[in-house]
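Our working data are protein records whose layout never changes between entries. The record below serves as our worked example for the rest of this section:
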Amino acid sequence: MNTMDNLEKQLICPICLEMFTKPVVILPCQHNLCRKCANDVFQASNPYLPTTRSGSLTSGGRFRCPSCRHEVVLDRHGVYGLQRNLLVENIIDMFKQESSSSKPEPERKEETPMCDVHEEEKINIFCVTHGVPTCSMCKVFGAHKDCEVAPINSIYETKKTELSDGIAMMVGNNDRMQGIISQLEEACRAIEENGRRQKTLVCEKFDHLYSILEEKKREMSQKVTAEQEEKVNYIRGLTRKYGDHLEESCKIVEKGIQTMEEPEMALFLQNTKPLLKKIAEASSTAHLDKVERGYENMDHYNVDFKKESKALRGIDFIEDDDVEYEEDEAGEVEAEEGEGAQTVSGGSTVTAASVQPTPPQQINSSPSAAST
């Protein structure tokens, strides 16, 4: 009996929840359906396809298997193009024969439910007013004598059809819900991809801004470096000139000391005249340049980026209406870059003062200063 019960469970249609009704069709996913149930699911999933007088669809379509949700694609024959599972049909016939031979008639009679009020009466009618099955005695003498009743078999067929239609409708709704879920998942993937693309574009914009700032920093640093090297080279050249003059003066001093030690007066006098001339020439620094006080300062290369910093902190995403305005501003930015100005965030301007290096100032010492 357990084996027969397990076999019976395997022969239940997932749509009508009854044993398969021939013909039985097998889906590409290897699950089975009654062909009528398969047609009901197919029609529910394709409500807008044309149908014949018998209710079958006249063109191909698709629906999902109620057991595994696998999508079944049908050709123009519809469900009638699906292959019949003759093996299952033969098993159903054998099962029914075995069931009819193994179960005695009295047991089948006991399966009929009896009335709770009239225990000896079978439930054989349906009370339409209260929506419950009952017996004939309840209709004649009992609680349902004033109610509208109907044969239980007709109500059974009606309710079974309603349940089958409801299941088919739910299967169609589930297919539509699955389609919506697929669309939502696709929307999530699109949002993630668009987000990555926009972040890449934002990073590229900032990298371009960094490159402009780096180029401007390099240009301004080169200006400072150029004047620095110019001043340093000038000071070093002046230092060499003063060193050469000092060396010459030391030689004259050494020559004068040697002349002072000359005992012969005539020879001393002969050497004194040219020596005094050299001393007078060496004592004069009129031919040597002097550096003005503060010449070593580089404070004239001063910058103030308060306005530019404020503009940079105001950088943000632009509205769609500002895109055209930003494109117009791009041409002006390129023209202003050659003059040391750059437009930031839709019109904010960052400028750096262009300071030309100050040429070295040379002051010739006066004769009075030389004598000093």
The radius of gyration is 55 Å. Residues 152-260 form the longest helix (109 residues). The mean pLDDT is 77. The longest strand covers residues 61-64.
